[in-house]
Amino acid sequence: MDSRARAVSLFQEAYEAQMRGELREAVRLYERSLEAHPTAEAHTFLGWTWSFLGDLDKAIDCCKRAIEVDPTFGNPYNDIGAYLIERGQVDDAIPWLQRAKRASRYEAPQFPRFNLGRVYLARDMLSAALREFEEALEVQPGYEPAIRAIAAVKRKLN
Q: Largest CB tally within 10 Å, which of 96, 121, 138, 150?
């Protein structure tokens, strides 16, 4: 098995461990995947695992490494923004979320839009929040959190 195939296999094992709640095992497996062949996905998911373990500094560092490997991958930009929101650093999250929105490779483009909506809502910028929530719904029709957020913002505006 070549190094890339080994990395993919280890990544899958790590993800399964993470989904089972075996977070330390997931860290170990993601790190082995990265040793075999570094990918933006493995760095990002390792960061996600560190966030579950409560270490947002490590999570952010992993996402920055993911961006170095592949700056077109949107997930790590959004994740950094989400971790900064979690820390209460909402203003610092904005540029990361805007970068995520512009990323050319992103399977869940509703997330940075929704997160920006959360930031603008926290800053009481209701029109901007509404616009972001509507964009989230536009790129992912039926996205329930956006539907609920739009209704809540419209109630506040009326």
A: 96
Q: Are 144 and 133 in contact (CB under 8 A)?
A: no
Residues 6 or more apart in contact with residue 55 via CB below 8 angstroms: none
Asked whether the whole model's pTM tops 0.85, one would answer yes
Using CB atoms within 10 A of its CB, is residue 152 exposed (0-12), middle (13-18) or buried (19+)? middle
Find all residues with CB under 8 Å of 125, minimum gap 6, and list them: none
pLDDT in tens, 26-52: 999 999 999 999 999 999 999 999 999
Q: How far apart, in Å, are the Cα atoms of 136 and each of 19, 40, 42, 98, 114? A: 25, 24, 25, 13, 6
